[in-house]
Amino acid sequence: MLSQDEINALLAGMDTSGGGDAAPADAPADSGLGAMDADASMASGPVGGGIIDESLLNDTEKDAIGEVANISMGSSATTLYSLVNQKVNITTPQVELANWENVISNYERPCVFIQIKYTVGLDGTNILILKEHDVMVITDLMMGGDGTNTDGEIGELQLSAISEAMNQMMGAAATSLSTMINQKVDISPPQATLLDMINDDPSDIADFLTGTFVKISFKMQVGDLVDSTLMQLYPIDFAKTLKDTVIAGDASASASEPEPAPAPAPQPMPAPAPAPQPMPMPTMDPMMGAQPMPQMGMPQMGMPQMAMPQMQMPPQMMNMNIQPAQFQTFNGGTTIMAGGENIGIIKDVPLEVTVELGRTAKPISDILDFAPGTIIELDKVAGEPVDVLVNGKFVAKGEVVVIEESFGVRVTEIVQ
Question: Which one, of 189, 180, 220, 217, lies nearest residue 76 by Cα?
């Protein structure tokens, strides 16, 4: 049944100028209601929340917004995995237009609203909606539980924990956005609230919830504990601004890439140089000056005639006296012996001495479970000598002693 406010709203939208579409004055009341019901059935959205104007966002814009949300939530899923130590899978988003009545009718109640505002790089607000059960599972995992302690109602502790989780998740998403738009993006601390949505006024949550807005739905899986839907709500103008900013960032990044340098034009090949003519070469004797070689006009016996490359010798080198090199003989007096007679020059060099009590190997799953009070079993038996390492090299073994109030090591064996 239509309420009186809805009837008044429909009457206000009817043509009262006397046209043919107006109902006659003597028409029965039920015929007017029938016309109103027909008009109401033609609305593309719930009557209580107003008509959803699908022309506010075309398919191309929806695809672009979905791609931005997909990249952002991919980073958020990785962050959530590190918080709950469970496999997290967030599927490809579905983007559509919605209003408050649409959200109420298609989502489980009560639920947790988490409002995040962008403070740097972008100017807008978005809201994440999580089911109450999902919040209880995630916060229980964050507090070291196994995710099954979901009895009771959500309190301040759970709201504070989920706010911190969303702060880190949306911080990772802001970093991804920053990479896409080539500028810094920052967010305000999230505000989490438990709402039943039936008796809540959407204007008290955010002004954009009173009209048509963008709803992005994700399927979220956390291990075997959560298989649910996560919703993200954007104002339409902010969603369009976000899409335009990302596209502009991609365009500027493409424009900033240096274009490849054009290939240099081919240079004309130089003319070939004339073939070199043979010339006499001087003979070099270690004990005598340079002597001219005999004329090479005729080939020598048994040797083929070869053209020698032309060499320009400075005139002062023609009579230069060339002697073999003489080197001083090394003797034992200047040799540093292997025994280390001169080791004193490095005695002041400091070396790091480490005493290793023992070692062990653990899988990552065990290391992530470390907590105050965890006992780690080492690979050495109690009373076994400890290892002494110098700059990471194993050099000795020893036993642990106590010197006044400090530990010490008495060396029992030097490792050769």
Answer: 220
- What stretches of 168-260 adopt beta strand conformation (E)? 186-187, 191-195, 213-222, 226-234
* Euclidean distance between CA atoms 148 and 42, whole angstroms: 46
Are the C-beta atoms of 278 and 296 separated by less than 8 Å? yes
Round to whole Å and give the CA distance between 312 and 297: 19
Q: What's the rounded Cα separation, in Å, for the pair 407 and 190?
A: 49
Q: Provide the H-helix boundaries in 106-235.
A: 132-142, 156-181, 202-205
Q: Which residues contact 342 (CB under 8 A, 6 or more apart)?
A: 336
If you ran DSSP here, which 8-state letter would residue 274 be given? P
Tokens of 29: 């009341």
All domains in the chain, ordered by first residue: 1-15+26-42 (no CATH), 54-253 (3.40.1550.10), 380-416 (2.30.330.10)
SS3 58: coil
Taking only the tens place, the pLDDT of each residue in 266-325 is 555 555 555 555 555 544 444 444 445 544 444 444 444 554 555 555 665 566 666 666
Measure CA 57 to chain center: 30
Instruction: Provide the 10 A C-beta neighbour count for residue 352.
Output: 8
Question: What pTM was estimated for this model as a whole?
Answer: 0.50
Q: Which segments within 307-405 are labelled E, that is strand?
A: 353-356, 386-390, 393-403
Which tops the pLDDT comparison, 261 or 7? Answer: 7
Report helix angle 132-142 to 59-84, nearest 10. 40
Q: Are 187 and 163 in contact (CB under 8 A)?
A: no
Q: Of the candidates 210, 222, 207, which has an alpha carbon nearest to the alpha carbon of residue 169? A: 222
Instruction: Report the relative pairing of strands 291-292 and 393-403 from DSSP bridges.
Output: unpaired
Q: How many CB atoms lie within 10 A of CB 165?
A: 24
pLDDT, tens only, 263-272: 555 555 555 5
Contact of 154 with 112, CB cutoff 8 Å: yes
Q: Give every CB contact of residue 115 below 8 A, 6+ residues apart in sequence.
A: 125, 126, 127, 190, 191, 193, 205, 206
In degrees and rounded to multiples of 5, residue 173 shows phi and psi of -65, -40
Looking only at the bridges linking them, the beta strands covering 191-195 and 111-120 are: antiparallel
Phi, psi of 401, deg, nearest 5: -130, 170
